[in-house]
Automatic annotation (TrEMBL), chains A, B:
<dbReference type="InterPro" id="IPR052158">
    <property type="entry name" value="INH-QAR"/>
</dbReference>
<protein>
    <submittedName>
        <fullName>DJ-1/PfpI family protein</fullName>
    </submittedName>
</protein>
<dbReference type="Pfam" id="PF01965">
    <property type="entry name" value="DJ-1_PfpI"/>
</dbReference>
<feature type="domain" description="DJ-1/PfpI">
    <location>
        <begin position="3"/>
        <end position="165"/>
    </location>
</feature>
<dbReference type="InterPro" id="IPR002818">
    <property type="entry name" value="DJ-1/PfpI"/>
</dbReference>
<dbReference type="InterPro" id="IPR029062">
    <property type="entry name" value="Class_I_gatase-like"/>
</dbReference>
Length: 202, 202
């Protein structure tokens, strides 16, 4: 059983967070999900609707899996020292560190991606890559695995990555079962990424 | 601007709810999203993590769009008279009534699908279809449109349906823009449904 700490902050992107948590959450015997925020107040997403944190930064800084969604709120949170400190601390002991979309901006801001291969939202790619040159940013990838760090492209890519992570932590059959249960058409190839071209990155 | 009332109840399926709300929520000028529950307490999903209601049944029963997710909790809620009454009332005046997965069990339980074509989760299909014979259940469909009622297959199908609904309410270009923003590979054909075969329905 792996304990997943999923970060939430004001302006998180709904599907970045709940797409992957759907996939992990369908394996109740394998994953225990917790939403973690700076305070215990409900947190409004970029789509307005609100999630309810289970624990706060000061109550919980050890998880087997750290999960970081993106969203417009990352632009502000990348200057939030308490949040970046928490990411650094949790990353150190976590077995896996996952991000979706501009969640990788927060990981880069915390410095934990330095020297690592990673990807991010394709519309925001160039700006983020220019800002954090110590990260080896991959232009075309649905998701990128480098050691314990697994980072995905924008929003929907998080679901494909989550199934990839399940295949890595368990096996491919388990990931395929979860895709079938959720009637999801899994893009299993982590190099599948038509959006890199759409956004002129390749 | 359309006001969307999205029902939440204990044991709702995370992605049933938040996949479509991601799509609608990316069009902030077109849709105003509200989570509606029986009480104002945080509501635990089937994946445990909790959503925070914006309004309760007694505070709000008029919406332009009624949105009903599925999940294990529907098995209990289909006997909840307050919830079924609320669905009936909101459905009457709503311009559109949408469901994902076993959300159609709640619509059927409220009687609003009688004489209508509809679909549901493919693993639960036969049981639900046998229970509500007045509904014209469609075995193979990613989603089904019949008048103001738009019902989708299991979990992930909700995202394809939401984009279909956006195309219907606005236009196809708008739906394609939302798919691009969310780096989503939209199954635009509402008859695309490999899961009907997987579950032996065809």
């Amino acid at each position: 059983m792996r304990r997943v700490g999923a970060l939430v902050f004001p302006g998180f992107e709904l599907l970045d967070l709940f797409g992957p948590l759907e996939m992990f959450g369908l394996l109740k015997d394998y994953f225990d999900l917790q939403l973690v925020a700076e305070t215990s107040e409900p947190v409004a997403s970029n789509q307005q609707v609100r999630a309810n944190p289970d624990v706060t930064f000061k109550d919980a800084d050890r998880f087997d899996v750290l999960f970081v969604p993106g969203g417009m709120g990352t632009r502000r949170e990348v200057s939030n020292t308490a949040l970046l400190d928490w990411i650094r601390t949790v990353s150190e002991s976590a077995e896996y560190v996952l991000s979706v979309c501009t969640g990788s901006l927060l990981l880069a801001g915390a410095g934990v991606l330095d020297g690592r291969r990673a990807t991010t939202n394709k519309a925001a790619f160039t700006k983020i890559a220019d800002q954090y040159p110590k990260v080896d940013w991959v232009k075309q990838a649905r998701w990128v695995e480098d050691g314990k760090f697994i980072t995905s492209s924008g929003v929907s890519a998080g679901m494909d990555m989550a199934l990839g992570a399940i295949a890595l932590m368990h096996d491919r059959e388990t990931a395929e079962k979860v895709a079938m249960w959720s009637e999801y058409d899994w893009h299993e190839d982590k190099d599948w990424d038509p959006f890199a071209k759409i956004h002129g990155l390749i």
